[in-house]
């Protein structure tokens, strides 16, 4: 069940990242990173391992999204 919820969340965020402008993508990625960090901290503080693992997976997913956004911005800024 947790895996399905994570996949659905990733798909929903991915759709917003495709349609969003550059600054909106960074804002979405920043929100996902903050949420993942809060999940990790809350999971560790309360002893819920699943919550901490899901937060870690969100951090990995958001980190990958940030790298893709930064690469796209760098490629768009380069003259051909």
Report on this model:
With 80 residues, this protein is mainly α. The chain has one domain (2-77). Helix content is 90%, strand content 0%. The protein has three helices and no strands. The protein has helices at 2-19, 22-46, 49-77. Helix 1 packs parallel to helix 3 (49-77). The protein is elongated and about 50 Å long.
Mean pLDDT metric:
79
**Which percent band covers the strand fraction?**
under 5%
Overall morphology: elongated
- Please give the domain count: 1
Query: Helix/strand/pairing class, anyone?
Result: mainly alpha
Task: Work out the number of β strands.
Answer: 0
SS field, number of helical segments: 3
Reported for the largest beta sheet, the result is: none
This entry's quaternary arrangement is single chain
Gyration radius, rounded:
14 Å
Q: Provide the helix percentage.
A: over 70%
Question: Which series of helices and strands comes N to C?
Answer: HHH
Give the terminus-to-terminus CA distance. 47 Å
List strands and helices in order, with pairings.
Elements lengths: L1 H18 L2 H25 L2 H29 L3
Helix pairs in contact: 1-2, 1-3, 2-3
Question: Could you provide a short overview of the structure?
Answer:
The chain is an all-alpha fold.
Question: Keyphrases for this structure?
Answer:
80 residues; mainly alpha; 90% helix
